[in-house]
Amino acid sequence: MRMSASLLKRWATCPLQVKFMDTERRPEQINSKTAFGSIVHDSLEWYNKTGDYPAALKRFETHWQNPALLNCEIDVWAKMTTYGSLLQKGREILEKYNASKAWDKRVIVAAEHKYVVPMGDHHISGIIDLLEVKKSSKGVRSLAIVDYKTSARQPTIMDLRLNVQFTFYVYATLQKEFWVGWPGYSEPIADNAEELWNEFKDMPRAAFWYHLWTSKELFAGDRDDADFQRMYRAINEIANAIDKDVYVPNISGTTCPFCPYIDVCGVALPVRDKITVGWDQPPLLF
């Protein structure tokens, strides 16, 4: 079965989201926060590949004015968001990111790289926002795996250490198919893919959660074989549940109010109508 880091994230949020999106292929309503995140990611990809901040800023402004250019038309405006406020926030994010990176001697390996690699009986896929080489204060080089976030709570150290998405990313970069491609599934990372594989296959990995809203970067912890076994157990169990069409809803206050499938699910609707206090205050760093 094909598993992705985003599918695991949806499963952790609520298994019914996997049923609606991945099994039934229902169209998802795109809200303003989701569209904003996609457009910022696209602009950062451009910046990371070219180093051209003015062009990246112009790209963001152009796509925010016309989200259809990136196939992310806005269906619903999330509460407490407006076109103008997110336009200004996007400009601020890119300005701060450029200021923090402008003087770095960056060695960028790839940006927004799509991968598919084998894992046992499954294929795992995803997109890594940024791969770059970092040096410690002692000069030790590591391959940094950076995941950008535009709207999220700041996770705890334990959250990051046990985050299966980051385990996905680290595992994928240790597979040759990630670099040289997998015929019929994915493309090589670059024209010199074999050379890059040989250069980086034994280099230590370091995963980072990067919150663009606050320009905060957190180390996500190391990963080893025990983490990969835990991940494989998780995807086996999820695959088994999908095969048997078993999806237990997560009926929590941090899930149902913000679900893109709330109107077709119905689980939260009776509760939602009864809540009047605090409903307009999303529990997000946004």
Offer a quick outline of the entry.
This protein has 286 residues and is of the alpha/beta class. 43% of the residues lie in helices and 17% in strands.
Explain how this protein is built.
There is one protein chain. The protein has 286 residues and is of the alpha/beta class. It has 3 domains: 79 residues, no CATH class; 137 residues, no CATH class; 31 residues, no CATH class. It is built from 12 helices and 6 strands. Strands 1, 2, 3, 4, 5 and 6 form a 6-stranded mixed β-sheet that branches. The protein starts with a strand and ends in a 14-residue tail after the last helix. 27% of the residues are buried.
Whole-number count of domains: 3
The beta-strand count equals 6
Shape: globular
Task: Give me the Rg, rounded.
Answer: 20 Å
Helix and strand element order? EHHHHHEEEHHHHEEHHH
- Overall pLDDT score: 89
User: Spans with pLDDT under 50 lasting ≥5 residues?
Assistant: 277-286
Q: Tell me roughly what share of residues is in helical segments.
A: 40-55%
The end-to-end span amounts to 35 Å
Instruction: Note the quaternary state here.
Output: single chain
Structural class: alpha/beta
Main β-sheet description: 6 strands, mixed
- Give the amount of beta strand, in percent: 15-25%
Helix count from the secondary structure assignment:
12
Key traits:
about 290 residues, alpha/beta, 3 domains, 6-stranded mixed sheet, 12 helices, 6 strands
